[in-house]
Amino acid sequence: MMSCGDNVNKKSSAGGALNSSAAEKVYVAPGEQDEYYAFISGGYSGNLTVYGLPSGRLFKEIPVFSQFPTSGYGYSEETKPMLNTSHGFIPWGDSHHPDISQTEGVTDGRWIFINENNTPRIARIDLETFETVEIIEVPNSAGNHSSSFVTENTEYVVAGTRFSVPVPQQDISIKEYKGKFKGALSFIGVEKETGHMDIKFQLLMPGFNYDLSHPGRGDSHGWFFFTTYNTEEASTLLEVNASQNDKDFIAAVNWKKIEEYINNGGGKMMPSNYAHNVYDHNSHTATSTMKKEVRVIDPTEVPGAVYLLPTPKSPHGCDVSPDGKYIVGNGKLSANLTVHSFEKMQEAIKNEKFEGEAYGIPILSFEDVLAGQVEQAGLGPLHTEFDDKGNAYTTFFISSEVVKWKLGTWEVIDRKPTYYSVGHLTIAGGNSREPDGKYMFAMNKITKDRYLPTGPELEHSAQLYDISGEKMELLLDFPTHGEPHYAAAIKADKVAPNSKKFYKLSENTHPFAAKSEAETKVVREGNVVHVYMTTIRSHFSPDNIEGIKVGDKVYFHITNLEQDFDVPHGFAIIGQNNSELLIMPGQTKTSVWEPKQVGVWPFYCTDFCSALHQEMQGYIRVSPKDSDIELEWSLGEDVE
């Protein structure tokens, strides 16, 4: 690798990756729009970022599991409940794998789901508003990694645990891990019309680590596939002790069979505490409900529900071809890519071609389910996606490259370097029946010498490739925020026409909304004060308030009266010890302010909204705690 300074201010040579042909392919002229949305996980930022392709422009950061002062998410009274868990208020998350809702195996652009790894949760983002509208905590789980992937009709969003734990949790020696810890695979039902989520069941599996997963499709619809590692069930120094077995497993789960078992009264309800948080777009308010039980399933009680497919040791990615015929599960320590056949798996099950069992779950014979191998494809295989021409693309972390190969013949067609240490890659619709064969982008962990240096930390690198021809062509580098893992991409014309422009005031049911300036008021209830405030270009109503006292708890309920696209207003006041608010047109948001000092304190709009934005301000007079000054408020005249 070259040093960080070697690239600074150097122009691309005519034969370089960013030649004029490549530049033309990613150029989106002023006033024109990108062809694709790319939703990229933010990793330890806890959020989801939205980029345009092919330009690589960042359009939005959607707050999901982390407080976000830019908009006040997780700070406003309406959105604080979204971050409730059984562990209390958690203002941060680790988001990994987004997946777009599907209808008949094709991405439909209604919702996008994403997992939180640290405090296990699944979120649903509404793609009409690009806002997080639901978060459900996943009990009996830890390290919610093999998530969140949806079935072909979004019947389920699935969440598999990375860490196995005691179920139910208890004070037990870690040395008793083997045989006593369980790995929960959670199937979260999604209501067809509303998207509302509810945990349908949890499958309590052996105490392995469940790494990644994908749904079956086509002939394999009704199945879900999970890679496992640490089948040794080690609890210390896993880099050594979890690499002893020659093979680990892909767990194949027949969720249709489990559904039938449940519908006939199977499974049992287990006490469990977990939060279910839902945001309502009419009241602009979230509610948090603590659930008290979850249905658990013992796989040994449902014959034919789960099988284990041996896979070279320490597999990571688990990917299913668009037609559902092949399951790719690559051992990170293997030089070959291993592809399993769903048809052969069915035949092996029928003929009971088992080579043993693990905790009562049949292990299929490796040779009997093997479709083929891509020989010596690269070093450190991780993830695979597919195009519309029968090709697969796999990332190799150690050799820093993407390799294109042919399904069925297993021949390598092309390889291109990435810069550097690539993790996931994404093709629009690559996790669906109808992938797109135009672009692929890789998400890399190391960025040095690709961008201007910014101290010891650099943003991660995404690299866009043209995959429309036989050979891949690197088109563009663009930085990504946080630690991106996976991404989901979709044609813009599936999403953009449904994007909400503003919230209708007539539909605002927030209990503290003031839908006109005539409805503004200030109400005292003991030492609690409610300010019903409106904002519109270019003033607040009221803009002068007196009679507030030290020790009061002041709730500013602010309604944006605008009914026009892209005219938010902000609100901030000195001593506001949470964050500013950004209120969308027609929306109501609430901020709490507890004045500690007497004085006259200004508030103002934080978002530049008009030529008279600087004039958009007001004052609050704060008097001593024992003051007898009455509440007064005004707009356009002096307070007497």
Automatic annotation (TrEMBL):
The keyword Metal-binding applies. The keyword Plastid does not apply. Signal peptide: none annotated. It is found in: Cell envelope. Keywords: Copper, Metal-binding, Oxidoreductase. One of its GO terms (molecular function) is nitrous-oxide reductase activity. InterPro entries: Copper_CuA, Cupredoxin, N2O_reductase_N, Nitrous_oxide_Rdtase_Sec-dep, Nos_propeller, NosZ/Cyto_c_oxidase_sub2, WD40/YVTN_repeat-like_dom_sf. Coiled coil: none annotated. Its EC number is 1.7.2.4. It is an enzyme of class 1 (oxidoreductase). This is Sec-dependent nitrous-oxide reductase. It comes from Mesonia sediminis. The lineage of its organism: Bacteria, Pseudomonadati, Bacteroidota, Flavobacteriia, Flavobacteriales.
